[in-house]
Amino acid sequence: MIKLKDLNIIESLDALSRIPPGKILINTINAHSYNTAQKDALFAEALQNGDYLIPDGASIVKACRWLKAKSRPTERVAGWDLFEFEMGVPAGFPKVEGTVCEPGGESDGMKNRRRRVMFMGSSEKVLSLIRKRMSEVYPQWEVVTYSPPYKPEFSDEDNEAIISAINDADPDLLWIGMTAPKQEKWAYANWDRLNIRCHVGTIGAVFDFFAGTYKRAPLWWQDHSLEWLYRLLKEPRRMWRRYLIGNALFLWNILVNE
After folding, report:
1. CA proximity to 166, closest of 46, 36, 23, 1
2. Average pLDDT over residues 172-195
3. What InterPro entries has UniProt attached to this entry (predicted)?
């Protein structure tokens, strides 16, 4: 169980620029993940103990204000916002030499290569589309991808293969996309075994948004905090439980647990 009023949550888009370099785990929280964490102890622990948490939902922003929480975000910061910020190479980080993990520094063997971004998760079909679009939108990045087995839980052999792939890639930025809560729990449980020095973001649906296999809501819906309604209208059979029941459950959990 987690308490929203006690969480450390990034409060604005501008605050992303103040995340220091190094091995940093960045997760998101929205109404759905808050509800899930009330009954999933490992997920709650992962959200509480990650390095940074961004408010990927207008409901989180509003609830934090209403609760007079320790963190009171002034705006929603979506997983897509984090993705665009990190991919854009923030000011203060090196542009060609060194890595995004080590501003101004150069590691052995890294002086003459582009920054390397790794996408771990999703299907090979989605990853192939990501590789293609990366070459068009972010050609300055070298891209590495890894599609893990599609199953509820990974075996020890699966985990070894994933960890080895990440460590061998030695990325300057790592995105994990396996949907919540699987991605957050995996990153948290295996954090100490990842021999990397970069930002790691668990961004789920962003893989599909960037690949183009799922269309994000138009800006008007986003600006009016109605992206959830857009998704519900687009996929009512898949999303009705998450949003109609989930939103009501979020309000109940806030009243009862906070």
Report:
1. 23
2. 96
3. WecG_TagA_CpsF
